[in-house]
Prior knowledge:
The chain is an alpha/beta fold.
Amino acid sequence: MRKRSLTLFSDGNLFRRENTLYFENASGRKPLAVEGIYDIYVYGHVNISSQALHFLAQKGIAVHFFNHYGHYDGSFYPREKLHSGDLVIKQADHYLREEKRLKLAKLFVKGSALNMERNLKRWKVADGFSEELEELLEELEGAGKITDVMNVEARIREEYYVRWDEHLPEGFRIVKRMRRPPGNEMNALISFLNSRLYATIVSELYNTQLIPTVSYLHEPGERRFSLALDLSEIFKPAIADRIATRLVKQGVIRKEHFRSDLNGVLLTKEGMKLVLEHYNRELAKSVKHPELKKNVTKQRLIRLEAYKLIKHLVGVKEYEPLVAWF
Length: 326
């Protein structure tokens, strides 16, 4: 049985009875085939029994929680079952040794920047970006502190947003990137997709030997699973930005799928469901991997990126970030 992500939008109760997991809401009680669940994403007000959490922990199923606005709140992260003491030491060593940390941080930014460039070329709004990027990547190479690396990354992203806006329909322009609260519809859509992508990466990291709280570009103390933030830099332009663009360009997501709130502009529940339908479909798409010479899903690419990082940490092969060929 191929495992799939389960998303719970409605309010209800998740509980275990004997060896079966149930979700009960106003529509009734439904048994869930736990063997077919990869991870769970909770957007509604769901009460989860301790027996259910114990059952999910046994099965190695992570549960990700999102608040009323669709923003990520946190995760139930089962006890790690794959960790290797040797890798833990090497992962920490690459954080503690400034030269090693800087190298990885720069590679995450470089991969992100090259995926942004791919998008702009794909959308035919890349005029002048490649020249700007070349200069910024030279500056990145010479950066001697993580704060300098982050500064270059922010400037690359600013140039990217300006050109991305040229491709977007009027009424769905970013104008200025605003996260919490999102100030307009496109900012709300980007934030929602980035939040779901972050949780997806957390699930993928759980299924590797990596410690998700030890990171290189982002400070480990900044958020709990900061390594997911590092990897998300690569996959935001390659996956989330492309989905957002396609949804508004094709008129799938419209003004009616948003609502105004004291916390800015937010997707409605119907809007969230529609976005996630396309998000899940995108992650399930297969692409021909140039090195493996076989088809893999886009979600699998995230796990493969983590494996590449492991090879770098243990000294098997230098890490090269994914640059979308698809």
